Automatic annotation (TrEMBL):
Entry keyword annotation includes NAD: yes
Protein's name in the database: 3-hydroxyisobutyrate dehydrogenase
Species this protein is from: Alicyclobacillus macrosporangiidus
Organism phylogeny: Bacteria, Bacillati, Bacillota, Bacilli, Bacillales
List of catalytic residues: K166
Pfam families: NAD_binding_11 (PF14833), NAD_binding_2 (PF03446)
Length: 287
């Protein structure tokens, strides 16, 4: 099976490498040329060289604007044979997902939304969680590709189901990170110290892998990005769109969104999402 891979950023490159290592014929393209080692996979300089003759097109780009740029401005839709399947690993909105799927259907192309949970290291290890939406037939065709990057793959229903699940997962993640950051800031202010709070939390049933991963960032007050704060803010905006469409108020996710936006406005957009701690430390007056 020939796979065209579009998007070789921090997540896209290791995912494409995993697919190539699983034995698929991968031809990858990045809009900004960059040297990437995909093992047996091949990086090409033209979008057409990646997509021509491909059975599956995988997208791992930043947002819906980037998806649209590839599909429309890049002229991908007109180049694909009927029956080709597009797998969008990117996190975009549900309405956007459904609109793209309808547009591609006019060309005889099927759509699977398959956003992932996990950051760069799980991507390298092939241990992401895939949340997929689309027809059963299209899902079965691309399932081997999905499993090449994942420890688990969930087919959740029709197009848009994967995008909706990913947004809810990230809404949960954002509320956890924001809530812990707020408590750490208060611990500093009242003299207990965030290090001591993290030590105690790590011995309780509230501890989790994501807190373990963020612990050194909070302890050292340094936030190299594995999931940039600006990307979480984007996802929380999409959560607002989803909840609004269903008239389902999400006050905790909304509060986390406001804190993430404030953190972006104060120069933390490129830092890891755990850097919302710095914004909250300013708010509670611990620095």
């Amino acid at each position: 099976m020939r796979v065209a891979w579009i998007g070789l950023g921090a997540m896209g490159a290791p995912m494409a490498a995993r697919v190539a290592q699983a034995g698929f014929d991968v031809r990858a393209y990045n809009r900004t040329p960059k040297p990437v080692d995909l093992g047996p996979g091949k990086v090409v300089s033209r979008l057409a060289d990646a997509v021509d003759g491909a059975d599956v097109i995988c997208l791992m780009v930043s947002d819906a604007t980037a998806v649209r740029s590839v599909l429309e401005d890049g002229g991908v839709a007109e180049r694909l044979a009927r029956g080709t399947v597009i797998v969008n690993f990117s996190t975009i909105g549900v309405a956007e997902t459904q609109a793209f799927a309808m547009s591609m259907a006019d060309h005889g192309v099927e759509w699977i939304d398959a956003p992932v949970s996990g950051s760069v290291q799980p991507a390298r290890e092939g241990k992401l969680v895939v949340m997929a939406g689309g027809s059963e037939a299209a899902f079965r065709r691309v399932e081997p590709v999905l499993r090449a990057v994942a420890k688990s793959v969930h087919h959740l229903g029709p197009v848009g189901s994967g995008s909706a699940m990913k947004l809810l997962v990230n809404a949960y993640l954002a509320t956890v990170i924001t809530g812990v950051s707020e408590c750490l800031a208060v611990a500093d202010k009242i003299g207990l110290g965030r290090g001591r709070l993290l030590e105690v939390l790590s011995e309780t049933s509230t501890w989790s892998p994501v807190l373990a991963a963020k612990r050194p960032l909070w302890e050292n007050d340094e936030f190299p990005a594995s999931f940039a704060l600006k990307h979480m803010a984007k996802d929380l905006r999409l959560v607002q769109d989803l909840s609004g469409a269903w008239m389902a108020t999400m006050p905790l996710a909304s509060a986390a969104y406001q804190q993430m936006l404030a953190a972006c406005a104060h120069g933390l957009a490129e830092d890891d999402m755990a850097a919302v701690f710095r914004q909250l430390a300013q708010t509670v007056g611990s620095r």
